[in-house]
Amino acid sequence: MRSAAPALPPHALRSQAVPPQQLARWLTRLLAFLLALLTLTPAARAERFDYRLEPRQIADGVYVLVGLKEDFSFANGGNIVNTGFIVGPEGVIVIDTGASRRYGEQMRAAIRRITDRPVVLTLNTHHHPDHFLGNQAFPADTLAALPATAAAIRSEGEAFNANMYRLNGDWMRDTEVVVPTRTVTPGRQRIGGRDLELLALGGHTVADLVVIDHDSGTVFASDLVFNGRAPTTPHADVARWLGALDTLQGLPARRWVPGHGEVATNTAALQQTRDYLVWLEATIRQGADDGLDMTELFATPIPARLRALALVEDEFRRSVAHLFPAAEQAVLEGSATPDETADLATGIHTRHFTDVDFADLRDALAEAIAEEGISEPVVSHFSQMLDRTAADLGHARGLYAEAEILTFCSAAVAARLATEAREHIALCPLSIAVHAQAGASREVRIAYRPPAIDTPGGKAARELMARIAARAAALVGRD
Amino acid sequence: MRPPGSTRRLLLAGIASLLACATAAGAGTPPVSTAEDPLDSPRWGDMQKQFFDAQPVVFDARIKVTGPAVAEDPLNVPITADASALPGVEEMIVFADFNPIVKALRFEPGAARASLGFRIKLQQSSPVRVAARTADGVWRVGGAWVTTTGGGCTLPSLGSGSPEWQDRLNEVNGRLWPRIGGGERLRMRIIHPMDTGLAAGIPAFHIEDISIADESGRVLSRIQPLEPVAENPSFTLDFAEVAPGTRLQVSGRDNNGNRIDAWVTR
């Protein structure tokens, strides 16, 4: 059985050759079928591959089919995903079609049990196989997705399908890839007589579609949100994903339908997804910076607060396989600045110096600022202020051995920012802090938070601050 | 030059087992004979003939093979082969029973810890085995199964297929890290397509020799990769005895004679 597992054609080991996908798919289906024959219990076979889909009404006209918090398997047939539909006065809007033709057909039948209105729009929120392989069951002219999603289904769909046969066995029988032909237009619109809004986001994959039903305050968040199950990252851009979560966080929603896991009535699932992603990204980057091998990173303990997430151990190791090579490459090629670390959650960049004199580093920073042609910084004596106020305000004295904040303004950067938007005045001036830990006065750190806006001016400000920090490090001999 | 002969082989293996049992007493993992493959692979008999014919060989749980139980990307399966629990390892080989090209690499640790991190291509689910030859001439074998079904939403990379390597062939990107307790860790990646020769019209093209030397030119360690090593090979080695702040020279060649030559520093 083990040796009968997946067959990559020999030339898949080499890039230029196109694998004979048809043959591979046929072979894997045959294998999957044989394996299914061998492993299915008579009881399971008697169920005739019934997913037992029970749409749950979560709001007026809004239904969800909640999948299992598992990975694909012969036992679950790929029913690990949340799909849903919205019944409007003029028709039904379907959100994702499940992992197989059988799922799609059984979902369609479940919809018919609830309404006889026609399906007017069938959305694929993104190009992962559990979200589109039920497309065959729905009218082809209702299938729609973001352009990048349709393109990804076209290019990767067949290989996904072959893999799903391997993982789910005969549940997949007769499943074929159907690429959506309609392109969705983001924005607020009436569909099926319902007040809907479509958001084009990304980060979990190249394009992630979020559906807001304004009539009920329901957000179908796609796989940008996982609830109680560890997020998956095979096509993730974590920074972009976190940005998408920011966008979602601001929505006035009454309930959230995650891509996987239970429906939620608050934003806890968004925070949980963010928490995991921030930890994941930082763990992988730190591992690369510290010179760990991938196999060593696999052994990283999962923090207690994340251990309750279903499949977290497996997904973490999968994510290391997805994300570590790029982090490692950046470190080995020197494009990363391993001396400087940035905390994604707070946006704070830090550099740590051991056995350096506080005053030397402070002077080096001032020198680096001067070298940029910027007028002398204003110095705030932060630790002295805190020590002065300790008695009156009742906080501890000596939080730092020493701490100062250097505030400065680059005319060039300021002009760019202000040209982009007058409100960008709020981002000026820039400041970099330098502090020595209490009890360890030669353990000195630089800390700063560059403007987080994604514009050329913001980028120039970030680069300026990184340059100054790196130059100061060089001046104290730690570049 | 040991004469082949099953009696002699068994005898040597038996003696080796006894000795190892004695030294490992209390460790709880004595080496065992090769009559029964702990990984239960139908290919073990062939493997034994191919790699250890006429040489003493035992299974030894002190050899740790760390990798994913399920390979997310079968063309980049990270493996750490660690025989550092054995004294006096002179040579290590890595092979995967079910790969079309079975042997993946040979490693002479020399001054390095007898442990190597690398990535291989796996054609299908297979045991990945590490054999270490100790000074007594005995091969000791450890291993782990790696399944290649991968994740449902992940596709194996088909290699970059980019012409990048033509401009950067044999470029070494590497760094040294200080280790807690002294010494330095070397991590490096070398740009190379590592063609297997199994794809129609693309001949085998792979790095075949890498030496790591100190500043005086003394060779510390040697790696001989073969076709199954992943594209743009990356390696992790630990050197306990090199001085902090030292530079290491990485040199070698591929099977077409293209040279590798680079210095790696912190």
Explain this structure.
The complex is a heterodimer of chains A (479) and B (266). Chain A has three domains: 40-277, Ribonuclease Z/Hydroxyacylglutathione hydrolase-like (Metallo-beta-lactamase, Chain A, 4-Layer Sandwich); 280-332, no CATH class; 340-475, TATA-Binding Protein (2-Layer Sandwich). In chain A, 37% of the residues lie in helices and 20% in strands. Chain A has twelve helices and 20 strands. In chain A, the strands form four sheets. Chain A has a seven-stranded mixed sheet with strand order 1-2-3-4-5-6-7. Chain A has a six-stranded antiparallel sheet with strand order 15-16-20-19-18-17. In chain A, a hairpin with a 2-residue loop joins strand 19 and strand 20 (440-448). Mean pLDDT of chain A is 89; it is low at 1-19. With 266 residues, chain B is mainly β. In chain B, 12% of the residues lie in helices and 36% in strands. Chain B has helices at 6-23, 44-52, 164-168, and strands at residues 57-59, 64-66, 77-82, 89-96, 103-108, 115-120, 126-134, 139-146, 172-178, 184-190, 207-213, 219-225, 234-239, 248-254, 259-264. In chain B, strands 1-8-7-4-5-12-11-14-15 form a nine-stranded mixed sheet. A three-stranded antiparallel sheet of chain B has the order 2-3-6, with no helix packed on it. The longest helix of chain B has 18 residues, at 6-23. Chain B is globular and about 45 Å long. Chain B starts with 5 loop residues before the first helix and ends with a strand.
Give structural attributes.
A: 479 residues, alpha+beta, Metallo-beta-lactamase, Chain A, TATA-Binding Protein, 3 domains, elongated, B: 266 residues, mainly beta, Immunoglobulin-like, 2 domains, three-stranded antiparallel beta sheet, 15 strands, 12% helix, globular, disordered N terminus
